Amino acid sequence: MIKQSLLAFTLAASPAFADPATVENVNVTKNGSGYTFNVTVLHKDTGWDDYVDMWRIKDMTGKVLGERNLAHPHVDEQPFTRSLAGVTIPAGVDSVVIEAHDTVNGWSSNAKLVKLP
């Protein structure tokens, strides 16, 4: 009984069961030869041990076109929006995928497919 209780407590406290980040919204604008991405992310940031530390833009082949590093947890700002300007999108690319990364789960499968303007 004690072993079962200890196992249950250990699993409940394990960061592997933390919620992954979710890309909730993406607003894209074209500015000259580049694009600006305003990305809204939701995650239960708890502090420096579990927070969204970046998001990225990928084409449909998986090539990374841009990354936005996030310098600190957003515990009291959920969801939060951050921007990345001057992103170059290769000719012929009309859709991209936005993915968020957190310090516990890594890259989330809760990505968003975005059609470019």
What would your notes on this structure say?
- With 117 residues, the protein is mostly beta strands.
- It has a single domain (18-115), classed as Immunoglobulin-like (Sandwich).
- It has one helix and eight strands.
- It has one helix at residues 2-13; strands at residues 22-31, 34-42, 52-58, 64-69, 80-87, 95-102, 106-107, 112-115.
- The strands form two sheets. Strands 3, 4, 6, 7 and 8 form a five-stranded antiparallel β-sheet that branches. A three-stranded antiparallel β-sheet has the order 1-2-5, with no helix packed on it.
- Strand 6 (95-102) and strand 7 (106-107) form a beta hairpin.
- Mean pLDDT is 87; it is low at 1-15.
Strand and helix layout:
Blueprint: H1 2-13, E1 22-31, E2 34-42, E3 52-58, E4 64-69, E5 80-87, E6 95-102, E7 106-107, E8 112-115
Antiparallel strand pairs: 1-2, 2-5, 3-4, 3-6, 6-7, 6-8
